[in-house]
Q: What sequence folds into this?
């Protein structure tokens, strides 16, 4: 996963480096279209798909506004996976969910490209380390264990009074607004208020249709539902809810009980 | 093939699911940039490339505006291939051409993800079924045989008098307008009229250059030719015919004999 | 590498053809988003990434405005690699750097698709030849040796007086302006003038920050540096230098000594 886009030679350089070290490794692209330098979007994208991959998968994530600075490169071993990424908070959501076993700083120059640039450490350091790791090199070879790493403050939704208060966390290709509120928060709100029906407030509008799937609504009608990531999302069937509501990432969203 | 785009976590989730079940299967992306919910464009794209793939290929196509509704999921076995897709007409053009052996409804929950969402059946049902099929599970395992399926009415070109009358079926990246008229219809028109020269009419313009390849024309000149899909297309060398003609999908096209 | 884009059925057709001939070959996409017919951009993209790939890699590059004309198809064997491309200058930068062993014209119809179109030779001729080559067919099988090929005149930077004078060669996704001047030219300028400090002139502006990495600059400040391709590039940290300077490919750039 990178923010390199697909127009240039960046991705191919990385894959060439990997293929030269381990021609048999299988590369799956998550996306290379993370908005430039957007570590928050990268967090959510990785969080939403990593758990579907097989045990032993090595995740290489290069959204790296600090490239060439003294920011470290992390190699994180969890119970099921490896993650290689700059130490800039990119792994925050994933590492909150995963069982972390060991965190190392990638530092052993032996596994870097011979002529490493200071502007493309994805190609020159992270890709070769990922490839060597896939060849069976032990993770302790790549650098010393460290005890802490950068965390991105990702705001949590909260229950206040009769409402869950949260924000839009991500907007997908279909214009669905994915919030930081999950289904459990609605259960908690139900228990607290003894009510089972909800409506959602965003940008001064009230949305009453809380459905199980997009297909339950008429085309173009605003709805909310528990989406495929487990989070509450606001959608408009075969239409673009984001454009319709002129809502952006960060927009406040409230879900209140119906009385 | 999907309409998920490449910006989000959707494609990666599908591929993760597949890799977990069958890490050795080879995945080739057709495109993930089918216009959202556009089952007609999806038909033509799949139709134009599927026949180049090896025998035994499993095609997974998720353009699925009815996700979460009672629309069925199809598993079609043809003489050479397997196709998995929602039952919404997406396979119409392909199945008109292919020798269909058996059609099943994908229904056996044993092969779905344990926690299936109602908004992402591509990830939760279709991808795992494709992966299990690639592992050698027999197709009868996935669900009962069915006898009919949804067909999309894709308008055919017709010969009337001295003309073939058709429409623009698809516009490609270069702005070439691909019609629903093939070379055989011109042969039939020739036989009927005893004429061998044609011109093409679109949006009030007459195009006289019927060429064998783009390179026969001057840059920017409007031409028509039998394209790489076998269909008649309207092009403008190293230029965008669609923009030049302000023509869209569905636009009427006529080819008439020259007198 | 192609200019086919990712919206249509073109790439999938190529990959299907290849998979049918050699299902085990590994395909890595360089990019399919070369601007339509832009042989100059294609040159630089290929030049910037090819050397990272393993020995024996077969590069297939289809940016082919002359498709269907009498322009030849090349099969070039260098010390480490094979290159298949139309003979239109696309390989100029690469072949200037690589040690060329033999150049052939791809001509043997035995290795083409049975029904070859005149509008899609990437699919019908070049892809199958690449696939057969990957299966171990000897290169002499594909066609006769030839002694010359088309070269694209790619302007070189020059030292005049106290300056290196060059041009913008390529603009990447981040808006960084990559020039045709490399670090060695600055060394030469240093030797000639006995000065070690430089500034850069573009579009009437002087840029004084010559840095080692993006992270040395403040966000949004214009800088220049030796980029990951080895060429001098103009950047603006976490910002778009191209938009900021309203500069395009071909724009003149001068680097002068500071006095």
A:
């Amino acid at each position: 996963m990178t923010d390199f886009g697909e127009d240039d030679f960046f991705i191919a350089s990385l894959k060439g480096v990997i293929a030269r070290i381990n021609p048999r490794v299988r590369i799956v692209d998550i996306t290379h279209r993370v908005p430039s330098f957007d570590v928050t979007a990268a967090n959510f994208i990785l969080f939403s798909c990593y758990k579907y991959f097989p045990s032993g998968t090595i995740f290489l994530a290069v959204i790296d506004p600090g490239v060439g600075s003294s920011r470290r490169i992390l190699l994180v071993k969890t119970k099921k996976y490896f993650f290689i990424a700059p130490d800039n908070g990119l792994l925050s959501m994933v590492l909150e969910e995963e069982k972390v076993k060991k965190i190392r700083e990638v530092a052993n120059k032996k596994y870097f490209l011979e002529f490493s640039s200071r502007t493309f450490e994805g190609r020159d350091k992270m890709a070769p380390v990922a490839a060597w790791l896939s060849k069976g090199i032990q993770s302790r070879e790549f650098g010393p264990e460290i005890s802490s790493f950068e965390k991105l403050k990702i705001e949590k939704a909260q229950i206040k009074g009769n409402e869950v208060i949260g924000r839009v966390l991500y907007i997908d290709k279909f214009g669905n607004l994915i919030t930081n509120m999950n289904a459990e928060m609605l259960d908690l709100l139900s228990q607290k208020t003894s009510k089972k029906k909800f409506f959602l407030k965003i940008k001064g509008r009230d949305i009453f249709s809380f459905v199980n799937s997009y297909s339950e609504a008429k085309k173009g009608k605003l709805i909310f539902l528990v989406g495929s990531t487990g989070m509450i999302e606001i959608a408009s069937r075969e239409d673009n809810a984001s454009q319709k509501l002129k809502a952006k990432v960060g927009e406040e969203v409230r879900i209140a009980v119906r009385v």
Q: What stands out?
A: Chain B has a mean pLDDT of 95. The first helix of chain B runs from residue 10 to 21.
